[in-house]
Design a protein that fits this description.
Blueprint: E1 2-8, H1 10-14, H2 18-27, E2 31-38, H3 42-48, H4 58-65, E3 70-77, H5 80-88, H6 101-105, E4 114-116, H7 120-130
Antiparallel strand pairs: 1-3, 1-4, 2-3
Bound molecules: adenosine-5'-diphosphate and magnesium ion.
């Protein structure tokens, strides 16, 4: 059993597809063990994506992630980290495999519908960035 962090990004929240994206997780054996909708401020978005702070797209990424509400979730299941990444598809929706969340709901590499932790270690850090232990059931 693993846990991983998922974020439904502002583009997908604006498109009103929160339920459709959550259905992908639930239909594929992942359980929502924590969930909240919130508006990230620039400091939090920058801290969350600190690993990318030297990249040319960092400012656009912070602009985008603070442009509207996001839904932050903890997903639990067997191989949750890898399974979530498979369900998400490639970072660039044009390269994402048909049937993946990004192929179906994302427009561009900036507005790409979802975030998912890329390793078990990062998942642990990202989960504790957003949730207290008592909020995960
Ligand atoms: P992923 O979200 O698939 O783990 P990364 O961790 O590499 O991808 O990048 C984090 C986020 O930064 C991406 O989801 C995307 O929103 C944005 N991003 C990544 N690469 C680019 C790029 N070349 N141009 C614009 N935005 C990018
Ligand atoms: Mg990443």
């Amino acid at each position: 059993m693993e846990r991983t962090l998922s974020i439904i990004k502002p583009d997908a929240v604006k498109k009103n597809v929160i339920g459709k994206i959550i259905d992908r997780f639930e239909s594929n054996g992942l359980k929502i063990v924590a969930i909240k909708k919130l508006l990230l401020d620039r400091a939090s978005a920058g801290e969350f994506y600190a690993i990318h702070k030297e990249r040319p797209f960092f400012k656009d990424l912070v602009d985008f992630m603070t442009s509207g509400a996001v839904v932050v979730m903890v997903l639990e299941g067997e191989n949750a980290v890898k399974k979530n990444r498979e369900l998400m598809g490639d970072t660039d929706p044009k390269k994402a495999q048909a049937g993946t969340i990004r192929a179906d709901f994302a427009e561009s590499i900036d507005a790409n519908a979802v975030h998912g932790s890329d390793s078990l270690e990062n998942a642990k850090n990202e989960i504790s960035f957003f949730f207290a232990q008592t909020e995960i059931k």
